[in-house]
Write a structure and sequence with these properties.
The complex is a heterodimer of chains A (158) and B (118).
Chain A lengths: L1 H16 L3 H44 L5 H7 L8 H13 L3 E10 L4 E12 L1 H7 L3 E10 L11
Antiparallel strand pairs in A: 1-2, 2-3
Chain B lengths: L1 H30 L5 H17 L5 E10 L6 E11 L6 H5 L2 E11 L9
Antiparallel strand pairs in B: 1-2, 2-3
Helix pairs in contact in B: 1-2
The chains are: A alpha+beta (158), B alpha+beta (118).
Chain lengths: 158, 118
């Protein structure tokens, strides 16, 4: 019985497709190429924004490592960020990325032998073509960077 | 055919856009690691060049510009710019003039608390 149904379906499909093969293929492959272009364009844009975000976060982390609280460091030898460090980091990231990267947190990770400045954030990557095709307007990519404060003395007794 | 050309164009341009920012940030990070201007410029340009060589980009007319003053807390700017060569992509090369300019600029503060290593 199933073989009978399957053969009827196949016959119907062949009849339905007859004469339309070239048209169907042309439409199908054009659509496929456009989807491929959308992927390449949009995810290329994501990659580009991610590279800008990574560079800006690295710079912000390294600059944040310069905004340490010198009073606390001089008295306790502890690395702590100054009050304005987060604002400065966000300002730098905004300047470099054109406002597309948001800094979420900036803190000092106290490890056994060293202190590491950790900055986390995310970049909002628009997907213009995929958004117009499938409604996928944007993806949010997390970004993270690390830096270590450099400190020393210029002269003896400092 | 136009779709295929557009895909080729986007692939080349997107891939060649990304290294500019990495090179500029590497350049600036190397520049501020010293108080000596000559050493700073040399290692900044070397860092940018190595960063660009590490990426397979289709670029021409590249320029690395390092400006600023090297004293604790002062600012140094590193600008990396080049043109992406798209002259081999038919039709779209006529539209863009055969090249797409890319530029990235990063400004950083010279280490304020580091010992004066020369």
């Amino acid at each position: 019985m199933f073989t009978d149904v399957r053969s009827k379906v196949t016959a119907f499909r062949l009849k339905a497709e007859s004469g339309y093969t070239i048209t169907i293929q042309a439409v199908f492959y054009t659509f496929l190429l456009f989807i491929f272009l959308a992927f390449v364009f949009d995810f290329g844009l994501v990659g580009n924004l991610y590279s800008i975000a990574t560079a800006s976060m690295k710079v912000a982390a390294q600059d944040a490592a310069k905004n340490i609280d010198t009073t606390v460091f001089a008295t306790t030898q502890q690395i702590r960020l100054s009050n304005g460090a987060l604002g400065i980091a966000q300002q730098e990231v905004t300047n470099m990325s054109g406002g597309k990267v948001q800094v979420l947190s900036l803190y000092v990770s106290h490890l056994a032998t060293r202190d590491v400045i950790v900055i986390t954030g995310h970049v909002d990557c628009p997907l213009p073509l995929l958004g117009s095709l499938f409604g996928l307007k944007m993806i949010i990519v997390p970004v993270q960077a690390y830096a270590e404060p450099a400190y020393g003395i210029n002269q003896e007794g400092q | 055919m136009i779709l295929i050309l557009a895909i080729a164009f986007v692939v080349v341009v997107r891939a060649s856009q990304m290294p500019a920012w990495s090179a500029a940030s590497d350049c600036a990070r190397a520049a501020i690691a010293t108080l000596d201007e000559n050493i700073g410029r040399q290692q900044a340009i070397l860092a940018a060049e190595q960063s660009l060589y590490g990426n397979s980009i289709n670029a021409m007319d590249g320029q690395i510009l390092v400006t600023g003053t090297w004293s604790p807390g002062s600012q140094v700017t590193c600008k990396v710019s080049y043109d992406i060569d798209v002259s081999w992509i038919g039709f779209l090369s006529d539209v863009t003039g055969g090249k797409v300019p890319v530029s990235a600029s990063v400004t950083m503060v010279v280490e304020p608390y580091k010992s004066n290593w020369n």
